[in-house]
Amino acid sequence: MTTRVLVTGATGFVAGHCIAELLDHGYAVRATVRDLAAHATRAHLTDLARRTGGELEFVAAALGDDAGWAEAVAGCDTVLHVASPFPATPPANDQDLIAPAVGGTLRVLRAAAAAGVRRVVLTSSVAAVAYGHEVDEVRTEADWSVVERIPAYQKSKTLAERAAWDFIESSTGATELVVLNPGMIMGPLLEARTSTSHEPVRRLLARDVPGSVNTGWAPVDVRDLAVAHRLAMEIP
């Protein structure tokens, strides 16, 4: 029997590559979108499934709403929870990012646990680990970003991951949690539309920045990250 995997946030940059990786390895994929009527936003995924001969279906579910999540996880062995708001500019209100990131993560986990999903793989970020510390040093999975000292996006990723681990630790169910914490995600587009992940490179190429930036990034290829998601759900 074909194993079915739910991927949240289907039209996102990382989610698209995760869907491609799963289809290439024979998984049936169910993917969430906010609006089932918006066919154009996911045409590249439909074409991908057609070319690979893979099984791909879409269901409606939003991070800020309870509706649809029970149906989304039904019959799935694993969930890749990739969806999280990532705007190109900071929001006026931190809660505009924090509420859907934390609330959406908990909605996915509650639905997965109730449905007996074997494992949830959560896409977190180095933003949940390395920010806000007074001393620069090597950080590990034992560290958390200091939410009192960091911008809204980093707060949202930190609080969402902490909420996920708290949920799993307090749960009596058998659902497992694995978390990935990538840095700056780069790589080829699956469609013409760019994502926030590409903004640093786009701005440099467009000469929006008037000089050489004194900064550093920890890049990861999105295709490697997609493989990492698959391995995180496969390896015991």
Rounded average pLDDT: 94
How many beta-strand elements?
8
The biggest beta sheet reads:
6 strands, parallel
DSSP strand content: 5-15%
Quaternary structure type = single chain
Per the principal axes of the C-alpha atoms, what is the gross shape?
globular
Total of helices: 7
Distance N to C terminus: 19 Å
What portion of residues is helical? 25-40%
What is the H-and-E element order? EHEHEHEHEHEEHEH
Structural class by secondary-structure content: alpha/beta
Strand order of the largest sheet: 3-2-1-4-5-6
Query: Can you tell me the residue ranges where pLDDT is under 50 for at least 5 consecutive residues?
Result: none
- Gyration radius, to the nearest Å? 18 Å
Features:
15% strand, alpha/beta, six-stranded parallel β-sheet, 8 strands, two-stranded parallel sheet, 236 residues
3D structure, described in words:
This protein is of the alpha/beta class. The protein has helices at residues 13-24, 43-52, 69-73, 95-115, 152-170, 199-205, 222-234; strands spanning 4-7, 28-33, 56-60, 78-81, 119-123, 176-180, 184-186, 219-221. Strands 3-2-1-4-5-6 form a 6-stranded parallel beta sheet, with helices on both faces. The longest helix is centred in the middle third of the chain and has 21 residues, at 95-115. It is globular. The model has no long low-confidence stretch (mean pLDDT 94).
